[in-house]
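Protein: Rhamnogalacturonan acetylesterase
Species: Sphingomonas bisphenolicum
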Amino acid sequence: MLTATALPAVQSFDLRAGSAEWRHPYVHGGHGVEPGGGAQGFLFSAALPEGDYRVTVRLGDARQTGDTSVKAEARRLMLNHIVTRRGESVERSFLVNIRTPALTPPPPNAPGGRAVRIDAREAQEATWDEKLTLEFLGRPAVQSVRIEPVIAPTLFLAGDSTVTDQYAEPAASWGQMLPAMLDDGIVVANHAKSGATLKSFLTDLRLDKLLARMKPGDWLFIQFGHNDQKKEWPQTYLDAGTGYVAWLRAYIAEARRRGAHPVLVTSPERRNFDAQGKILDTLGAYAAAARKLAVEEQVPLIDLNADSRAIYEALGPAVAPTAFNDGGKDRTHHDNYGAWLLASAVAERIRMQIPALATHVTMPAFTPNRPPAADAIAIAPSLIRSDQRPAGN
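Structure follows.
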């Protein structure tokens, strides 16, 4: 963990058109605008060591109006539709976690590894590189960016493809929408991985990475089940009533050993309707096991399984596909709209059930059985797109 004396210095960058920083290309150890931007937005990166940072952006333009959305790293939504009038300037700040795969090497003869086992696609993503990347979207009007190191409470996310930071449009997950619903007093560190199970999250050394950065007072949200239930994956399959519960207990224990607060999240359902317009149960046994364990271990529970069912049934069989990836052909993974709805359900549960975190929730009240329409959300799409479905589909 970085100490106050080890933190890097504050850095400020002028991003107005015509400034030196605007023209400066990104190089290792430097900063600048990444190639590939255009009318819909651009990416700005600054090389930094892993850690947590407060980013303060000054938005506005003397000559025209702006409508700026900001995402960080792999499309984590930080600011959504900040509108500025011509000549107006506003400042907004948010916290960003950045990391690399590196781990502290284990002692001689001890088991472990030197790095998280990331795959080829992850190696190309902004999540695991040695820089902080900001994506400015919509009609971006950006004057400056200030980046300063910070030590703040961290909300760690451990989970699968329905939680992770999906790297490309149109897929999205609730974990990458959650930062936009919280204030700048807490940082979200999303370690979830597409295709992950409770077992693989450990064997890929992702849990080790997460725990290495954890400090007293932090939070660990744990959501698994989609892939753990797959009997066709024999090496990672977990029975809902036995192994699944045992592994969840281990995660809870590891968080508590470090003075952090564990929270269980039940897995969102898949979008399968019956003839009466009700969602079919495919994950109920795992959700029930998590509910029971939360009572036994006296940990908070975010019942996203129940809330997802309410959201999909409220939208109905005709509209619910608009909340899902691949034009609705994907019944498991969401698009920006669906990810926003599920993140809203999580944020609302935080506000109602976790008093210590409730003060950080900034979004308006959300009722799962009355979800807003897609055009009321309208999240600006990122620049990168892919027709490859998330792993574990």
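Remarks: Residues 1-6 have pLDDT under 50 and may be disordered.
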